[in-house]
Amino acid sequence: MKFMRSRVLAALTLSALVFAPASVSAETIMGALAKAYQNNPSLNASRAGVRVTDEDVAIAKSGMRPRISASGSYQLERRGGNEIRTGQFGLSLEQPIFDGFQTRNNVSAAESRVRAAVASLRNDELNTLFDAASAYMDVIRDRRIAALTAENLEFLEEQVRSSRSRLEVGEGTRTDVAQAESRQQAALAQLSAARAQAEASAATYRQVVGEDPGSLRMADPVTNLLPSSLNQSLAIALSEHPVIAAREHQVDAAAFSVKSAEGSLLPNVSASASVQSTDTQYSGLPTAGTEGTTNSARVGLSLNVPIYQGGQASATVRQSKESLGQARINVDVSRDQVRQAVASAWTQYEAARQSAAANREVVEAAELALSGVIEERDVGQRTTLDVLNAQADVITAQIDLVTAQHNVVVASYAILSAMGRLTADRLGLQVATYDPQEHYNAVKDKWFGLRTPDGR
Length: 456
What we know:
Blueprint: H1 2-19, H2 29-39, H3 41-61, E1 67-79, E2 82-98, H4 102-168, H5 174-209, H6 230-240, H7 242-263, E3 268-283, E4 292-304, H8 312-378, H9 384-419, H10 424-427, H11 436-443
Antiparallel strand pairs: 1-2, 2-3, 3-4
């Protein structure tokens, strides 16, 4: 019974170390998610990608804006004994008037691509927060499994000592000792693997969250944010998931691209104006009446009507139409993927809840059976192998329970992610949310300037 008392103490110590519910310094899952939202490099790269896409709107709008250029030249020419110096300076302006609605459609396509990029960013945020939640729970699970495996090793070491003691007084056999030693060595290997897995999970946590995991507080499933049924989850996901929204905006962009390509078959009209000043100087033999400055100005209107372009314009229109068809198909593909993700996450959540409840009963029964087998072994009614098998049942049940508790929490976050609702606002994360609209508003109508809105 001495070992059983030490076993209880070890279990209490393990519970205190792993769960640490009253520890002020322990990290919470919401704190980890907030850090991942701010620090995750992949998510920050996605945000930068949206800012890149924002500039496409300003680029598209430039199609109907004026083009102003200046030119200048200086020329020295020798003719026999004469030198002719000519300086020339000019300023020109070109203003598109009609381009077959290409600029208007290009702007609309660029705006649709921006909306698609923003929706894709929201999806990246969902994935990052889910990855952070999974990494958080993986660390807790693997640390608990490593602690349980260490406790199992301690139990088996006690069985080896007990078997040797009984052998010395003639109550046991060498087979009992060998069996206990065999299980002890196997437990050593399992402990090494469990610790390695815990380190690997910590490395994943560091990659996603941005810092090493310290003391982590056990998390609860986000049941308060989940709908009451699978059908409600599916309805919400199909109407709110950002992947579907991104695909729909890509359809809009492809439709405007078709119109822009068709616009290349329409006439183009543009106006132009220029001024030029030419100064000519002669040296050597006098050339009367030819020196001095000449100024000129020109205003014009040009019309360009495409007749045949080698088939390039037609091929571009056909290609754009095929891209539009592909974009429409991708919407259906995304809907199917979202529907499958929600159904899978929901069924995994229900299965994990049932598994956790069942495994609690299994753990209690296995621990009770182990206590009975030890007592029966002590009075000669059971063998050491029976004790070892009963202990193996206990450690298996405990690990299964830890895994099921992990799966319940992860599956609840998976449902939110599949629904498109795993966001910083809905989770109530203590973090300033990133607003891509601010950068877009700063650059969409910019006519000039090399600095980015943040001053670079």
